[in-house]
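Lab notebook, bench 4. The sequencing result for the construct came back, and we need a structural model before the next group meeting so we can plan mutations. Quick request posted to the team channel:

Model the 3D structure of this chain.
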Amino acid sequence: MIGYVTLGTRDLARASRFYEALLAEIGARVVMRNERMTMFGSGRGQPMLAVCTPFDGKQAGAGNGAMVALTAGSQDAVRKLHAKALELGATDEGAPGPRGAGFFGYFRDPDGNKLAAYFMG
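Done. Here's the predicted structure in token form:
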């Protein structure tokens, strides 16, 4: 259902480095890059994530109540992805652990965008 998600950034080079290293942990790579955007994906027909400078030229800001969830293949993969995010400069928004029917870890990227690493099962 989701084709791609974009996250605004105030520093495209920094955000691109952050996500290139982070998303490599779950098999994604850069699939498109230009002066305003870097897009990551893991294969044809799979959802993608992009970081970009806002089209309107105004400063990017983290959406209040918005969150992107990155699927991980196991509880251990959630732990690794969360740890990698923190290593790359993210801030902790909730250590990995069980929540509801899944296993989640939350963090904010260097621009303040909230993400979750999760595994259901």
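The beta strands are 4-8, 29-33, 37-41, 48-52, 68-71, 91-99, 102-108, 114-120.
Will bring this to the meeting.
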